[in-house]
Amino acid sequence: MIDVLAAGPVDLLATRSYYAGTFLLLGIGAYVVIASPNLVKKVIGMNIFQTGIFLFFIASAYVEGAQSPIVGPKAVGPFVSPLPHVLILTAIVVGVSLTAVALGLIVRIYNEYGTLEADVLQEVRTDD
């Protein structure tokens, strides 16, 4: 096991590559939400950002050498906590529901205004 204080940033990144993946997903998702004027692309960016959060929680819950928390007569710790996995499973369900509602609203906005561009919608709303 690598000592975290003695390891340099390159060694730490090599051993904890899921953190790099997490921040890459968070960055891409935030960029798409902020930079794209299209509402559908904003929803996709939100889903990418959400996936980065899921990866962070699951990866940070990893315990090397741990076993499942089914305690028996010969069970010796350390054990893996099932709580992060349960929370992420719930968050996935909420995320799918949020995406469905957002896409439903986007369909209604398109039917009403004929566009999905946020800046055009802003102009149309100020004209009304």
TrEMBL record:
Membrane spanning stretches: 18-36, 43-63, 83-107
NCBIfam families registered for this protein in UniProt: PRK07375.1-6 (NF005621), PRK07375.2-3 (NF005624)
Gene3D superfamilies according to UniProt: 1.10.287.3510
Keyword terms of this UniProt record: Membrane, Transmembrane, Transmembrane helix
Chief location of this protein within or outside the cell: membrane
Superkingdom of this protein's organism: Archaea
Location of this chain's protein in the cell: Membrane
Name of the molecule in the record: Multisubunit sodium/proton antiporter, MrpC subunit
Keyword Transmembrane helix attributed: yes
Source species: Halorientalis regularis
Topology within the bilayer: Multi-pass membrane protein
InterPro entries in the cross-refs: CPA3_antiporter_subunitC (IPR050601), NUOK/Mnh_C1-like (IPR039428)
